[in-house]
Amino acid sequence: MAGSRVEQCTFKVRGGAMEDARSREPNFLEPCAEEVNTQLERILACERVNLPERARKFLRFVVSETLAGRSMYLKAYTIADVVFGRRNFDAQSDPAVRIEAGRIRRELERYYLMAGPREPVIITIPKGGYVPTFERGASFVEENPDGPLAVTPSSVTVPAPDPLVDLPSPGNRLIVSRLVIAGLTAGAVLAGLTFFLHDMRKPLLNNSDGRASIAVDLFDYPVDDRDLSKISQGTTDELIAKLVRFKEIVVIDAAADEGKPSNARYLLEGNLRKHQDIIRSSVRLVRQSDNAVIWASNYDTDLSIQSVLEAETAVAERIATAVAQPFGVIFSPDVAATGGWEAYDCALSYYSYRRMMTKAALATSQQCLTALIQKYPKDATSLAMLSLTNLDQVRFAYKLGIVPPKEALERASELANRAFAIDSQNARVLQALMLSYFFSNDVPAALEAGAASYALNPNDTEVAGEYGLRLSMSGKWDTGCDLVSKAVSHGAGPAGYYEVGMALCAFMRGDLQAAELWSRMSDLTYNPMHRMVLASILGASGKTIQARKELDWLNANAQNLMPNIKREVKTRLARPEDQDKVFAGLRAAGLALTEDPISN
């Protein structure tokens, strides 16, 4: 059968390169069926692999079907039928197969993280489907020095596109390189390989020594409660996996470090309690320099309405978002007690500037980031932040009270691409790329960068919000507005920034009352464009006196904006019909605009 792997592992050596007996072409990366099955049994025999019998049957089934060349039939319905014995299975309403697949993915990742560098074959099930992939481990390369110098994914199955976002191809832009696609789909494979290069007792991220470090300890639980013991381990594993996606911080596994690392700036610890089906997770963040508790919260989950896996994931997401998101707990200047942590100090400087949005704060942030990059030229996250500050000189020029430097947009793009070349799997880097593309009028490339950024770290509320705004302004209002709403509901900052996005969402769907409420909740001093949006909404609502007051404010305080309103609107809203709605509202407010809203 085409595509099957039923061949035996027969190799020969020719000229120092190992070849499969059926071909003279070197084949270092694809293990044969025998090797895969041996590795599968090795995994399932491991005491540390905590999989129930149904999950084991699931894993054996998808592996055997793929080896036999029948991977195209590995759908949720087939798995439910063969593995679960479920007839008339509805994958849309029943998440059983997805939940079991998620459990298997986590256990496989955990197995490879703990196993070390000697595993001969790496088995993963990439998200987006149920077809496993098989790769050789690092030990194979060591034993075959004449082969490739590095193991790279060769049999990665690319999942179907996100059904919420149908992205066009951005042509020959860097962002559509196979590097992004392969990196996103092979994340689980590379997670295992990463630990071949790092000691388990060291930070998971270590671009420079100056990042904020968080040690994550196992959640405490009553010693005689085996169920809470498993939930503790699962929640901790989920939390580490979600925190590590925030590239501004370093994450340390306190359990692997045999205690609470004294060199970690913060310690995240908690405890679990249970009453019937309710699990309460109490968590707190401690600054280790003075043992000050700088944040604490409780999260309740009801196991009668959600599975243990869903509960663990939900709690971990909420904690990671609260603690590590931009403008979150550890990036609050009130609790940081900084000094001597260069990258962390610069990150605080950056977010402090974004809160204040003043010319002086911008200069301070850029000075800090520039000096840091001179010392650490491979610090992709700081490069991305510096890119964003250059872009702000264009998009927030009126708020900052500056004339946009001619080279600002070009500089922002250059920095973003430089950061991408260093770390293509960095959500902040891809956010910077997205915005540089968007304000260069390359909307397709911007949306693809945004999709990649959001896929890497959906718990980063700034990524979700900025991507949501770009989707909305490109005309994908339904999908984009959902993400903007998510950012607002999670308290994404700066305060009042994303509310204007919600105002535009309501305006475009014709809900003028909600649009006005959201607009007034936005920070009207953050950017004069916010007042322009309110003026258009009020004009469309027939509230001409109030609309006129907003225009009077703009004439008095944003004189450079008024002659360029049409250009600014068209820079942000991609579709002519969306531009027309804003222009019509401004005309109704009393602003004189030419009849043709498309021309300047």
From TrEMBL:
The keyword Transmembrane applies. It comes from the Bacteria. Gene3D superfamilies: Tetratricopeptide repeat domain. The keyword Transmembrane helix applies. InterPro entries: TPR-like_helical_dom_sf. The chain crosses the membrane at residues 175-197. SUPFAM superfamilies: TPR-like. Keywords: Membrane, Transmembrane, Transmembrane helix. This is TolB-like protein.
